[in-house]
Design brief:
The complex is a heterotrimer of chains A (242), B (51) and C (218). Chain A is built from 6 helices and no strands. Chain A has 242 residues and is mainly alpha-helical. Chain B has 51 residues and is mainly alpha-helical. In chain B, 82% of the residues lie in helices and 0% in strands. The N and C termini of chain B lie far apart (62 Å). Chain C has 218 residues and is an all-alpha fold. Chain C has one domain. In chain C, helix 7 runs antiparallel to helix 8. The longest helix of chain C is centred in the middle third of the chain and has 30 residues. Chain C starts with a helix and ends with a helix. The chains are: A mainly alpha (242), B mainly alpha (51), C mainly alpha (218). Chain A: Keywords: Cell inner membrane, Cell membrane, Cytochrome c-type biogenesis, Membrane, Transmembrane, Transmembrane helix, Transport. Chain A: It is a multi-pass membrane protein. Chain A: One of its GO terms (molecular function) is heme transmembrane transporter activity. Chain A: One of its GO terms (biological process) is cytochrome complex assembly.
């Protein structure tokens, strides 16, 4: 019994059908607990006031925006190497989720930046990189939509994903070089001396778990949809031939 | 019940509002499309077996 | 390989090949900038390196679809794919031809257009050099985008969407080098990084483009 068994679309659908209710339930539970805890039961920060509560949305969304692209990269590699259709479809299914997460991170960041930095937007390296990441998501999704042949679309988009990852990384460092930042450093790294305090950290962790679960549940659901849509196209094409 | 958000109430509430609306839209669109495609596929498959 | 390069160059220079259109576009963009931001010399001088880089980049982008589209339509791309020359080589040669017909003229024209934007004296050389180093990367990256969208209806707009994010690092380092040169600062670091991007793109991207073309020709 290996992971590759689930590369079979029927097995994949059967498995995900079984785990989806629990998964989405857990996602909703984590999100509700984390956000309610964060919103109602955490103290204000002495410098940021109540705007610190935005962290419970901003940080998980930003994390998932990057992780979604990483997941697409891995799925694209699997498609290129082992040619499992489910993998290519999962990458396709993840893209809109990742793009939405990017928008959430950018929007909450802008709303937070307005009172804190005195501006909605600054050409700070992190902000700029996220904007570029969003453009990559847009291009990736547009390419999927534009190509009619399913296998060709999977091939081309996965190559775009690989090349895009390299260039996204390059842009990240180019942008760092180009402008110094306003954005604070990582607040969750394990080796940093100065992390956010525990009162903020615990609900944040719950929220991150919620976003991860939500992402996985959405990708499962959307991959199922893509599999069904492709099966339907195949049946219709066969009928037209007959 | 409502915590005192101080002078940043609008900021915090609009951030939560925007995010929740976006997440709801994403989930809603995913569910809607899933349901539609599932129904369409079922229709096509039953039509094929009926013949 | 040389024969292919000559063929592409001749096709591009011949009437209807679109040679010179990129140059004209570059000129027009440069002329329009003062109308948009005002004719003050100081303001123009401070944005000139960036504007010239952006104009060269857009002019390059406009001519990208020529790289593969015509050969794809008349079937000669299929012939090239079955030729003894590996497809990676074909892509590299075609990108090179694109650079000769679009990149080089832009590089040569940029200092002249710099006069129009009252580029400061020391900036001319660095603008010229940074464009000389950076435009090959633009051609090679563009060839990848053109390969992705070859054979698609309405491929042009999609290609811009795909290629422009890929141009970000090149633009940042190139424009930064030109700007620092114009302001008399040290330019080695951005120039080195720009050279690194060009060399890396030149070495690796033809493989990706060839893989993409094989899929499109399947």
């Amino acid at each position: 019994m290996s992971l590759w068994e689930y590369a079979n679309p029927v097995r994949f659908i059967r498995l995900t059908d079984r785990v989806l209710p629990a998964l989405s339930g857990a996602a909703v539970l984590c999100l509700v607990v984390g956000l309610v805890w964060g919103f109602f039961f955490t103290p204000d920060d002495y410098r940021q006031g109540s705007t610190v509560k935005i962290i419970y949305l901003h940080v998980p969304a930003a994390l998932m925006a990057i992780n979604a692209w990483l997941m697409m990269l891995v799925a694209s590699l699997i498609w290129i190497v082992r040619r499992h259709h489910v993998s290519a479809l999962a990458a396709r299914a993840a893209a809109p989720v990742g793009a939405t997460m990017t928008v959430i991170a950018l929007a909450t960041g802008a709303i937070w930046g307005q009172p804190m930095w005195g501006t909605w937007w600054a050409w700070d390296p992190r902000l700029t990189s996220f904007l570029i990441l969003f453009l990559f998501y847009l291009g990736y999704m547009a390419l999927w939509e534009a190509i009619e042949n399913d296998d060709a679309a999977a091939d081309l988009t996965s190559i775009l994903c690989l090349v895009g990852s390299v260039f996204a990384l390059l842009s990240r460092y180019a942008v760092n070089f180009w402008n110094q930042g306003l954005h604070q450093g990582a607040s969750l790294s394990l080796d940093a001396e100065e992390n956010v305090a525990d009162v903020f950290w615990l609900p944040l962790l719950v929220c991150i778990a919620g976003f991860v679960l939500l992402f996985v549940a959405l990708v499962f659901l959307r991959t199922q949809t893509e599999i069904r849509a492709r099966r339907m196209r195949a049946i219709l094409a066969r009928e037209r031939m007959a | 019940m409502m915590p005192d958000l101080g002078k940043y109430a609008v900021t915090v509430l609009s951030a939560y509002g925007v995010s929740l609306v976006l997440i709801a839209a994403l989930v809603g669109a995913s569910l809607w499309r899933a349901r539609r495609v599932r129904a369409a596929l079922r229709k096509v498959e039953t039509r094929r077996t009926a013949r | 390989m040389r024969a292919l390069l000559w063929r592409d160059l001749r096709l591009a220079v011949r009437a209807g090949g679109g040679f010179g259109l990129g140059l004209a576009f570059f000129l027009i963009v440069t002329v329009l900038v003062p109308f948009a931001v005002g004719p003050q010399t100081g303001r123009l001088a401070s944005i000139a390196p960036g504007i010239l880089w952006l104009g060269a980049l857009l002019a390059c982008l406009l001519s990208l679809d020529r790289i593969f589209a015509l050969d794809f339509e008349d079937g000669s791309l299929d012939l090239l794919a079955t030729a003894p020359l590996p497809l990676e080589g074909v892509v590299a040669v075609k990108a090179l031809a694109h650079w000769f017909t679009t990149g080089l003229p832009l590089v040569a024209a940029a200092p002249a257009l710099g006069v129009l934007l009252s580029l400061p004296g020391p900036g001319f050389f660095w603008l010229f050099l940074s464009l000389l180093i950076g435009t090959p990367a633009l051609s090679v990256i563009g060839a990848f985008g053109a390969a992705l969208t070859v054979g698609l209806k309405r491929g042009g707009l999609l290609m811009s969407l795909l290629v422009l994010p890929l141009y970000v690092p090149t633009l940042i380092f190139g424009a930064e080098a030109a700007r620092r040169g114009a302001e008399g600062l040290a330019v080695e670091t951005p120039l080195m990084l720009l050279g690194g991007i060009s060399a890396g793109a030149l070495a690796l991207l033809p493989f990706a483009s060839a893989a993409v073309l094989r899929v499109s020709l399947r």
